[in-house]
Every structure is written in C-alpha cells, then in structure tokens.
Amino acid sequence: MTTTSGKGPAGPGGGSGAPAAGDVDGTPESVVTGNGTPGDGPGAGEGVASLRRTDTSPGVTVADPAGTAPGPAERLAAGPVMLGAIRRTVGLTLDGTQVRVPEGTTILEALHAEGTPEQADTPTLCWAPNMDPINACRACVVEVEGSRTLVPSCARRCEDGMEVRTGTEKVRHSRRMVLELLASSADMSRASADVARWMSEYGVDADRYGPPAPPAGEGERDRRHAGHHRAPDGRTRETVAQPVKIDNELYVRDYSRCIMCYKCTHACGTDAQFTFAIAAAGRGFDARIATEHDVTLPESACVYCGNCIGVCPTGALVSVAEYDRREAGDWHPEDETVTTTICSFCGVGCNLELHVQQGEIVNVTSPSDHSVTHGHLCIKGRFGFRHVQNLPEG
Ligand code: SF4
Ligand code: SF4
Ligand code: FES
C-alpha cells in the first residue's frame, strides 16, 4: 500500500504515483512512441505523415528542406523513445506502512513524500532541500530494524525490505537530547520557526544543565589551541557565548548562536559558492567556524554572496539590516510580507523573494526549488536593494 498524505518537499519521483508492485516505476510519461506525441499508438504515424509539409513557397520555414530525415513511420519502426532514465524502486515500511520509493531516495525524502504529517515533520538542523546531506546534527535520527545504532534519516538511503520506525521512545529521547545539548551551549532564541517548534514539542529544557558559564572575551575562542581544554567547573554549563563579529557593512556573525551544523561552510564551498572563505577550526567544544587565519571578513576570500546567511538555521549569520533592526527593537516578523520578483541586475533570471517589513526591504532570499538559483544568490541579488528605497549607501 502506498500512502500519499505526507507533506514537505517531494523527494525524487514526487509524492505519489509510485507503482503498487514491480521493480521499475514504469511511468507512462517516461516512454513516448514514434513522433514523440505521448499516447500515439501504431498507425498514428500515418496520420502525422499526411500532415508533413512539402510546401516550399517563400515565407514558409521548412525544417528538412532536403527531405532526408526519417519520417514518422520510420521513427515508429525504430521502437520506443525513452525520455529520461527509468528508476528502479525499493519497498520499505515506515512505522509498519508499506511504501515504494525510487532507488536512491533517502529515508527523510521518503518520509516527506510518503509519510504521514507527523512522520514528514522530522526535525532537521543541518539538512536543507537545496544542499547535499551534511549528516552532522543527528536531529533527524530514526530506528532501522537490524541497525546497531539510530541512523540519520537525511543521509541514509532507502533499501529494499527496510523497516523504519520514527516515533519510538528511543528516537524521541535521542532527538530531545540533541536539541537540548545544542540549546544548552548555543543561544537558540533566534532559531527558525521550525526549530523553535521542535524544541517546544520535544520538551527541551537547557536550564537543567545549570546556569551558563561566563561568556568568552572577544577573539578568545578563536585563539584556543586544539586539544587544550580547561576543565569545566562542574557548576555551570559551558557555552559558545562571545561578542558578535561586525566587520563589514553587509552581514553579521554572531557565533554565540552557532551549533556547528556546517551548512554555511558547505554553502560557501562545494554546495553553492566554491569560494571556501570559511571552514571549521579547532577541536571538540572549541570547534568553530572561522575564516582562513581568523582574518576579518573584508580581509578574507569572502565575496559577500550571503549564501551562508541563507542556510544558517539559528540566526548566527544575519544581514546587517536584520541585525540593526533587532537590536533597535524594530524587528516585526509578524508583519513581514514576501514578494517574488526577478533580479534586474543581469540577464540570468534569478527569482528573488523580497522580505518587507513596514514598507522597507529587510532581507532578500531565493526559493530553494528555483531552477536557476537553487536558493542561492550573488552579492547583487542578496544585498543590492538599497537603491530601491533610495537609501544612502553605507
Ligand atoms: S558571504 Fe558567500 S563567500 Fe562570504 S563566507 Fe558567506 S558563502 Fe562564503
Ligand atoms: S554559523 Fe550557522 S550555518 Fe554556520 S555552522 Fe553555525 S549554525 Fe550552522
Ligand atoms: S538533519 Fe540529519 S544529521 Fe542533521
């Protein structure tokens, strides 16, 4: 049986229409015959042949003036024309419900496409629909029959006969611990709405680890040497609290909110930007996101595309426009409207989503499913909006 009531982004093959049985999806639209018109049966080619244009009078465009291209009948005789790869499917159970998904689908994609709303609402921190799985946070774990440990659903591919369980005590306990330990060390108060909801639903209580230890001084965490940890005092909980880094006019790095999900480094690297301006430095609790040699952003390789901001789940990376408004108590997400338009700076055709509060653009993003941007932008699309409001630069 195939359930199709799931929500969330559809995985490969969409969320419905999987065959009830068989090894390949065999969707009829993946095969057309003869002249390329879906549904043509034998004989259809003759009807088409009679329509073939032979008129060569001036003003008429003829695709095959020499008349040497194969006609519809010949093309039909050559057999079916495949338009797109045929993908095998695999069968598995999600909390006891049998589903089939295309081979290569991750468990998370299967939950999004074929699961119930509860199954599709699997918490994720380091996953994004427009990025390759990073597999760092373990918020998305599920049980798989026969597996010694819980497995990350965002990265593990479905296999034939797999039995997946999502709502067990073991799964819920593990997800709660992940969220709780992260919240005990990083400031999650500006995390995305989804993250805030998951923390509430899983009963996260970071305060049970005690009061926070004093914050680190400016640059202190950046100077720590790998492997040289000071012993905790046992009375307070260690945190990554430290001063905000403001060293340019476009975006702010507030690493007190960083959970080391690695999304920013992947967006800056091989997932989108290929600039590699930031990477993980340090070890253990001292691990941190850093520019090369901890230089300021203007001194680094950063090109200010803002793609790291676009994927950060906790608000550690935000535009200066957002940061300043929040600091001034002038941030109104409840009044925000989002208008989609096309970037006017060049001819690529990137979709822009203009986030507007109280008549002013406060952020610009792009839809993750847009075929041109895949959710990523350049400096002009992301930050080049001040002229729209005639604001002075700087
Ligand atoms: S703004 Fe772009 S180039 Fe700069 S660190 Fe972020 S992703 Fe890398
Ligand atoms: S700055 Fe944001 S995106 Fe980068 S690792 Fe930290 S939480 Fe993740
Ligand atoms: S969302 Fe799966 S490991 Fe982070």
UniProtKB/TrEMBL annotation:
Residues 88-170 form the 2Fe-2S ferredoxin-type domain. Residues 8-17, 36-46 have a biased composition (Gly residues). Residues 248-272, 293-323 form the 4Fe-4S ferredoxin-type domain. The keyword Metal-binding applies. Residues 336-392 form the 4Fe-4S Mo/W bis-MGD-type domain. Keywords: 4Fe-4S, Iron, Iron-sulfur, Metal-binding. Residues 1-74, 206-239 are annotated as: Disordered. This is 2Fe-2S iron-sulfur cluster-binding protein.
